[in-house]
Amino acid sequence: MSNTIYKKLFPIATTLILLMGIYSSCNNEDFFELTNPPEFPWLNMNELEFGIVSPYAAGLHSSWGGAFYMVGNVIMDIMTDQVFLVPGSAANYPFIETYFRTVDVQIGRADEVFNAAYMAIGACNSVLDFLNATGREPYQGMNANDRLNIDRIEGEALFFRAYSYSYLLMMHAPAPGAEGFTSREVLPLRLQFPTSASEAIDVDFGTAAQLYEIVIEDLKKSLELLPERFQPGIHHPSYQHGRANRYAAAMILSRIYFRLGRIDEALPLLDYVISGPYQLNEDPIEAFNRSNATSGNEVIWYALNYDDVKRFTPRDATLYNFSDYRAMNGGRGADTKRGGWHQFTMSHYALQRIGWMDNNFAETNEARRDKRYQQLYYRLEPKPNTPDPDPNRYELQYPQITTPMVWGDKYYRGMDGQFSNVPLVRLAEAYLTRAILRFKKGNVQGATADINVVRQRAGLPVLTSVTEEDIHKERIKEMSFEGDRLNYLQSLQLAIGPGDRVNVQPIAPPYNGLYWRIPQREMDFRIQRGD
Asked: Do the Cβ atoms of 169 and 216 come closer than 8 Å?
């Protein structure tokens, strides 16, 4: 969306979210019986855009950490074998519980995912309820373009509700096949906006299996309703940037099918996405270095952070990103600015597995010629016993480190780090997922072709044939620090290894009990109701 339009819509959308979100904890019936209720929802098509911006505001921009997508990504990445907790580091973050996967306790960051996701779901439900109550003809004199926008708005609401539930399911529910997946009611089932305190509190809970089917149905409907691209003169100008289209819906649905092991349903969606207008014809950094209305050619959907009314930077990524969120001009060279509370580097296990570091911790030729390593990661050597060591080369922040470390460096890479957009869906992921699914189906030639597209963009030579391990390694190189690893391992029913953790056993499928508990207040409500 244009900067001007976003500035106009976002503050209003945020206010509406706050009003709608009160239902999460309100137990006062009087709140819902106002003497002079606000004129809400929306009186015309332009005002209806406030409604559909609201889920994006709640889900992508509503907290210091960056709302649920970034908070969730950081938590899930820290739980995997691809990260290493720097010894002696500390931050105002539950890093011990997260790193050692102590999921049977409550942590505030997981509660943030829960709260923001349900805020977004509430915003989606308010739009869907409004459209259903008016028979999808809310205004007199609607023209053909208005009806196309009604389709698009309904599609966005269904998409974002599904996207929000997908994060809740990954964070707060048993994995597919795990104990309780089909029987344990773990998450509030909210498919309508509550109109009374009793409706807000007396909510049914759903099983993971039940909710996955709801997510699938929402995404399938959104595929029918969403356009493939913004069309000037038809769509509201705010739809131009940072909003979901049909390709984004196809990618999220392919993730769900992949997680559920439904390969034959995921593959056609990936074929569709790869056949679209997105391309891997730019350097990898181009997906991450935009702090304006543009996006890289491979970016299918992104969190729009460049607006200057409110800084939307997802700062939780500072935990494992080399650059600080206030870095300028890409955060390299003379503009290097390190984060003050980052704790998690790439694990030596992962680096050696993918061939970016040898057994003596030396940088390899494979790493030096890989554009991803050069552009999206940052290696520091241990502090030497020499005067005035170069801070751009040596680890001065953690002098206790005695081995080289490689930090992720995908975030805050725009001209102004505080405004850098964050890609949520990239074309490289579609190729990598199709590669592993093709391989599982016995199509080694097709899998090899997909991997080579990704490798060639990274400046690497093509492979004549790939193994399953080749595909796994390419995914680590491409997708690390984007919240992908845990879901990838669980989708393939692979053990979640210890990485560099000492005396920690792998977590084998079906990952029984590996999910974070929901906020205590939600459990207290259930107890009060006698559930």
From this structure: no
Task: Please name the residues in contact with 134: beta carbons below 8 A apart, sequence gap of 6 or more.
Answer: none
Q: What is the pLDDT of residue 16?
A: 44
3-state secondary structure of 83: strand
* Token pair recorded at residue 373: 């390593």
| Nearest to 76, CA basis, from 447, 510, 482, 357 | 482
Residue with the bigger pLDDT between 92 and 284: it is 284
270 residue type, one letter:
L
- Per-residue pLDDT at 418: 87
- Going along the chain from its start, the domains and CATH numbers come out as 7-281+514-529 (1.25.40.390), 316-422 (no CATH), 425-491 (1.25.40.10)
End-to-end CA distance of the chain: 44
Q: What is the DSSP string of 417-482?
A: GGG--EEEEEHHHHHHHHHHHHHHTT-HHHHHHHHHHHHHHTT-PPPSS--HHHHHHHHHHHHTTT
Classify residue 164 by its DSSP letter.
H
Counting beta carbons within 10 angstroms of the beta carbon of residue 411, is it exposed (0 to 12), middle (13 to 18) or buried (19 or more)?
buried
In the three-class reduction of DSSP (H, G, I as helix; E, B as strand; rest coil), residue 145 is classed as helix
Return the bridge partners of 303, or none. 422
Grouping H, G, I as helix, E, B as strand and the rest as coil, residue 179 is coil
* Residue position matching structure tokens 């669980």: 490
Confidence of residue 200 (pLDDT cuts 50, 70, 90): confident
Rounded CA gap, 459 and 375, in Å? 12
Q: List Cβ neighbours of 2 (8 Å cut-off, separation of 6 or more).
A: 237, 238, 240, 241, 293
Q: What angle do CA 482, 483, 484 make, to 5 degrees?
A: 90
- Residues found in the chain: 531
CA 531 to chain centre: 32
Question: Phi/psi at 9 (nearest 5 deg)?
Answer: -80, -40
Residue 32 is which amino acid? F
Give the integer Cα–Cα distance in Å for 93 and 70. 14
Burial (CB count within 10 angstroms: exposed 0-12, middle 13-18, buried 19+), residue 108: exposed
CA distance 114 to 121: 11
pLDDT in tens, 115-148: 999 999 999 999 999 999 999 999 999 999 999 9
Identify whether the C-beta of residue 389 lies closer than 8 Å to the C-beta of residue 374.
no
Q: How far apart are CA 428 and CA 453, in angstroms?
A: 9
Query: Residue 62: what pLDDT?
Result: 67
Maximum distance among all Cα pairs of the chain, rounded to whole angstroms: 77
Measured CA to CA, the distance from residue 81 to residue 75 in angstroms comes to: 13
Phi/psi of residue 412, nearest 5 degrees: 60, 40
Distance from C-alpha of 393 to C-alpha of 408, rounded to nearest angstrom: 15
